[in-house]
Amino acid sequence: MAVYGLTIFTGAFLLFQVQPMIGKYILPWFGGTPSVWTTCMLFFQVVLLAGYAYAHLVSTRLKPKWQAVTHLGLTVAAFLCLPAIPSDAWKPAGAGDPTWRIIGLLAATIGLPYLALSATSPLLQHWFARTESEKSPYRLYALSNVGSLLALASYPTLFETQFTRQGQARIWGCGLVVYGVGMGLCAWKVWTRASPGAAQGRSSSNAGALASPLVLEKRPAEGRKAQKGREHTGVGTASVRPSLLKEAKAIEARRGGSIFWVLLPACASALLLATTNKMCQEVAVVPFLWVAPLGLYLLSFIICFDSPRWYRRLPFGMGLSGVMAAVCWALFNWSVVSVPAQMCVYGAVCFIGCMICHGEVYRLKPEPEQLTRFYLLIALGGALGGILVGVVAPVLFDDYYELQWGLAGCGLLFLDLVWGDWRAGRLGGWRWKPAWLPSWGALACGGLGLAWVGMIVAFWVQADQQGLHTVTKTRNFYGVLTVFERAEPGSGLRFAKLVHGRTAHGLQFKDVERAKWPTMYYAEKSGVGLALRQFAPGSRRIGVVGLGVGTLASYGQPGDTLRLYEINPSVIKLAQSEFSYLTNCRARVELVLGDARLSLEKEPPQGFDVLVLDAFSSDAIPVHLLTEEAFRQYERHLKPGGILAVHVSNASLDLEPVVANVAARLGYEATMIDHRPPGEKWWVTRSKWILLAKGETASRLSRSCKDSRPARADLTRVPLWTDDFSSLFQILWRTSAQDFVPNTAELELKSALDLAARGDAAGAIKHYQAALEDEPDLAMALNNLAWILATHPDASLRNGAQAIQYARRACELTNFRATMLVGTLGAAYAEAGQFTEAIATGEKACVLASEVGNNALLQRNRQLLELYREGRPARD
Prior knowledge:
Blueprint lengths: L1 H25 L7 H28 L2 H16 L19 H20 L1 H12 L8 H23 L2 H29 L30 H10 L8 H13 L4 H24 L4 H20 L6 H20 L6 H25 L7 H26 L5 H22 L2 E2 L2 E2 L5 H30 L3 E7 L2 E9 L6 E7 L2 E7 L17 H6 L8 E5 L15 E6 L2 H9 L3 H4 L3 E6 L2 H7 L5 E6 L14 H9 L1 E10 L8 H11 L2 E7 L11 E7 L1 H10 L3 E3 L33 H14 L3 H14 L4 H13 L8 H14 L5 H13 L3 H17 L3 H15 L7
Parallel strand pairs: 7-8, 7-10, 8-9, 10-11
Antiparallel strand pairs: 1-2, 3-4, 4-5, 5-6, 11-13, 12-13, 12-14
């Protein structure tokens, strides 16, 4: 058994190891988007299906000796594909959907090795049953699963962090040689020791978890307990009571037979890829987030097929209802739910959904003579799920709805199976004896049905709410882009915003004058604004990697040149049709479609004064744009004395040491600019930029911004990134203490808000005043303090004169256009006894609330206005 065990273990390990390794190789060539990995998974599932079909045909159509010769020939052909490194000839020449190019690349690079490895488990277990007919082949099950899980766990934590891509490929090639030697020994044993009388039905194969050899059932121990367990679960063996076997076959026929062997694995596969898409879209396209859902998917197979005692319908049915509710909560609150919380929700969805799908598949397993067909149909279902997510969904949906539909499909299949068992008098594998027990089955089915309907309604409402302010939405290989248009509640100013995933990539006001303002991360006091001010307008040459809505075009002046690199054609289309930054730009604008790094590699030196690196896919930055080789390309295109501005704002990744390490390697001084805009400038977002420069330019940068500091390098924790070595696992969810320490005003404001929420108005007043001492123009503190001083029931805390002073300043900062702030000023006038001014201000607050369509605020302001007309101040 040793040689079979080693070969199966090695094959399973290599099969799972090559997936993230090859994905890491080709990810930089195709924009670094989540769809690259989804397409890879589609390829792996389809080739896995081909491997299962090959093993089934070889084991059923050929004699043992010819089986050995055939598979040895395939293994030798796999050696000819080494090293498993894709050729540069496969790099894309332009933009567009690269799905079929990726599939062709994978087929040419690892197609034969992957096919040979995917057939290993079913074929070798079949051989073992022939050559070692007196032994059970099922112990090989554990070895294969250990190999698969070890490969998944070790890649992001060990191989990616300790070895370059070239080193990983060499190690994998050596592993394939070890596999080949083991396969040769196994083939020799088949050739010399095949038992003609061994039943082919003894073979066991992989149960569909992308090549983990999952067996139908361990050989039961003899005795009363084992016999009772077989009768209890209704599992078909030769010793099962004929009546139960007949009933089980009748139930299977009623359910449509083998259709569930395809539908359930397809649903599980769709959930796997959908959760992977969501995770990578919100954080980064990294192996750690590839293998985590895949590991949960594989774990569900192992648990369900190990023993029927691990999967129980009641707890997992309740768990399914729970994850349905959790997904609804996460989708309704996507803008405020933290990334770690979303990762936990999506991970739970993947695991619970896959446990139900694979647990139900195990319950529907056939008689031993149908094993190879059973496993083949499971693999077919997995491939169909991959096709639905990777090929059909981008065409059918304009957003990532496959997660919702996959979860809905899982619930519907589960409900149908439970309802069918209840109607047949069997629920959860038990025969219900008392007459009153079936009512509980009906109640359980009804509860599941209500949960399913409620989830569908919630998904529908959530999609409808998303579309409430949506101007347009588009989806392609690079993700989902949505343009919203709405009015800011306080000021009534209308604006359009581009959102990719959960991250806003640009905002522009609709009125002509404000449409010229640089907004969000690109304000004049931001790092990029500071970099652009270092060069005189009129002769600047500016390069921008990542278009967004074209906000940086607002800095262009006659005589300037802006060269903008963008990989997503839909971004260019939306920037030109829904926003006017490019149209109104007074500089010369050059648009380059395609991956920026590949484009820069082909171009002659551009002589940029400033090169802006601002390429994000949702909140994830493409890793290949942050390596040493990439920065050497950027340096080639900079003028002497030029500035490289790198945008590192990120909710999930600590990118500062990555950029600082590269800067130190190339001899640049790296200056961190952490811009925190005042609260009243809601259209400007906190941003973090690192500016790389040399010589006098670097000195000038450090002197021109009081909030600047040297960027923090950290070669101990985060090694230098190169094309051959990078690992986001080391910076995932790590933050710099200096980055996120709030300033004094923010701390005081937070304390004031907490005290006010607890009813301690006196304490809140002190902290609001302390916040204003540090930042006198903090609009929120001014408004909230004025409201307490004007409306609090305790006369000892009220002060009308001070309330007017604070409220008027808050209104001045917002041009008297913020409804709530104007309403506070009216209350301050009323407290001071100036009711004429209070009435006029209250009427203005009503007009503002009506303009923005805020009915609740309008009603509140009307109530206050009636008080002022009666000569009464407001009290809160």
